[in-house]
Amino acid sequence: MSFIEIKDLVKKYGNTTAINNITLDIDGGQIYGILGPNGSGKTTLLKIISGILPPTSGSVTVNGINAVTGADSIKKFLGYIPETPALYESLTPIEFFNFIGSVFNIDSATLKERINAFSSALEIEKYMNEFIGSLSFGTKQKVAIISALIHDPQLLVMDEGMNGLDPRSSRIIKELLRDFASKGRTVIFSTHIMEIAENVCDTISILYNGNIAGTGSLEKLKEEAGSNNTDLEEIFLRLTGDNDLDTLLNSLKDL
Ligand SMILES: Nc1ncnc2c1ncn2[C@@H]1O[C@H](COP(=O)(O)OP(=O)(O)OP(=O)(O)O)[C@@H](O)[C@H]1O
């Protein structure tokens, strides 16, 4: 049994098909990237895996638990970071972390230990008593990541969580994710930026128009695309069969 099993998954919003019959197994203990251009269905897929959004048809299980009927159970071992994290701007990071700790009933000694460890690893100790609303984008993103890790989840789902970070912040977060996965935990994150997927993920699924165009390690995708080039962008274009380079590249690049 894979950690996450997705079977015949379809999600429609009215006449729009966001997920078009996806079947996918995701093993635990790795960093898994969902790569695709805007509107390809990444957020929808991550929300369904997280039990936030019900599918139109098909099923998802996480650690054997159905994502619709067992959403409450999944929530206990899930850390979810939405595309635009909702942070209390008028709280300080330490107040926000304590609030999350109380929601998850974490005892105060453990909570303190985790807050100290994460804030030190992500280098935000000096901002712990500043209002969240006054912090930079990258620091807010680090606060969101810590708040999702504080209850020691087995699964971390990050929707575009690495976009827009400066190189130092993204390196630090990459190391944190690597450490998290090395303990047998699973990270799934979405991005439309090739370099991020290429640098961070053990496995990549390419999502395109609600379909999986390819899944595997970069090496496997390269083989499937019949490409000698390690450039994920070229592999993407070959697997999706999209020849409209200008349009596609524009949608993939961080504008
Ligand atoms: N609540 C909604 N109501 C109607 N259509 C929606 C809704 N949410 C998403 N869609 C549509 O479903 C498709 C997939 O959207 P989704 O947000 O999952 O893609 P995405 O890959 O995460 O995009 P982005 O990179 O822009 O965040 C798009 O066509 C989008 O317009």
TrEMBL record:
UniProt cross-references to Pfam families, sorted A to Z: ABC_tran (PF00005)
Keyword vocabulary terms for this entry: ATP-binding, Nucleotide-binding, Transport
Recorded superkingdom: Archaea
Gene3D superfamilies xref list: P-loop containing nucleotide triphosphate hydrolases
SUPFAM superfamilies listed in its UniProt record: P-loop containing nucleoside triphosphate hydrolases (SSF52540)
Keyword presence, 4Fe-4S: no
Domain ABC transporter: 4-234
Gene Ontology MF terms: ATP binding; ATP hydrolysis activity
Record's keyword annotation contains ATP-binding: yes
PANTHER family membership: ABC TRANSPORTER ATP-BINDING PROTEIN ALBC-RELATED
Name of this chain's protein: 3-dehydroquinate dehydratase
Taxonomic source organism: Acidiplasma aeolicum
Organism phylogeny: Archaea, Methanobacteriati, Thermoplasmatota, Thermoplasmata, Thermoplasmatales
